[in-house]
Specification:
It is a single chain. This protein has about 270 residues and is of the alpha/beta class. The protein has ten helices and seven strands. It has a single domain, classed as Rossmann fold. It has a seven-stranded parallel beta sheet with strand order 3-2-1-4-5-6-7, with helices on both faces. About 45% of the residues are buried.
């Protein structure tokens, strides 16, 4: 696709955290940015902060009608969408048998079905135009499964599997499928969790990777970069040795969040009745 400059880039969950950092990076690269978020006021504030032709819109990625309306209004007001960034996500952390049903449903609905919905609704128009890119902020949990993140990891494994299949279906169409797999990022979603052997990432680390992938497309990008080769190498080991390596690399999030008031605050805001 080349440079992000002049392209219309739509970002889900773009009002705060990683999404806002992506919006800022894309805007700085000369893109026209559309920010979608359930908090429409926050989306508008972030767009106003960026200035230029940036716009903020309401978007609920769990609803077909809301997503379709978001894509339609962005195209109407800003032009055809060149890049869709699937960024919206939620995470509950703790023992698998203590996870509330509402949290399980929310993670599947936002993290997995939200991505599926975005691809299903955005890709056909891109294919008809002969080009476009869909970038999904997945997770290192697409490749590994930390204790305490069972359902979250399941959704991210599902995302990578889905994108792998769709990428083959779109081969030769001009539509590029990309996935960014970061480790733990310093955001509200990860508050109270541990990083394991990898360093704590910033939202801007992820945003910089998004711009790199727009400029030089590739399918999977892991952050930090060494995580991908390490996980691949561990996969070649016998199970007993693999388990030992991964236990040294991957944090035990059950232990990390035990007693964390900050974690409870994040989850009560999103998963309480």
């Amino acid at each position: 696709m080349g440079s992000a400059s002049g392209r219309v880039i739509a970002i889900t969950g773009g009002a705060r955290g990683i999404g806002a950092a992506i919006a800022q990076r894309c805007h700085a690269a000369g893109a026209v940015v559309a920010i979608g978020d359930r908090d429409a006021r926050a989306a508008a504030r972030t767009a106003e902060m960026l200035g230029g032709r940036s716009r903020g819109y309401h978007l609920d990625v769990t609803d077909d009608g809301s997503f379709a309306e978001f894509l339609a209004i962005v195209e109407r007001e800003l032009g055809p969408i060149d890049v869709l960034v699937n960024n919206a996500g939620v995470m509950w952390v703790g023992p698998f048998d203590a996870e509330p049903a509402k949290a399980s449903a929310a993670m599947v609905s936002v993290n997995l079905l939200g991505v599926i919905r975005g691809v299903r609704l955005a890709a056909p128009a891109m294919r008809a135009r002969g080009g476009g890119q869909i970038i999904t902020i997945a997770s290192a949990a697409s490749k590994v499964a930390p204790p305490g993140e069972a359902t979250y990891a399941a959704t991210k494994h599902g995302v990578l599997g889905y994108l792998t299949a769709v990428r083959e279906e779109l081969r030769g169409s001009g539509v590029i499928i990309s996935a960014i797999l970061p480790g733990v990022v310093d955001t509200e979603l990860a508050v109270g969790t541990a990083t394991g052997a990898a360093k704590l990432l910033t939202p801007d680390d992820v945003a910089a990777a998004v711009v790199r992938v727009i400029n030089r497309p590739k399918f999977v990008t892991t952050l930090p970069r060494y995580v991908g080769p390490l996980v691949a190498a561990a996969g070649l080991l016998p199970q007993r040795l693999r388990d030992g390596v991964l236990r040294r690399m991957v944090p035990d999030q059950v232990a990390a969040v035990t007693g964390s008031a900050a974690r409870r605050g994040y989850e009560s805001d999103r998963f309480s009745d």
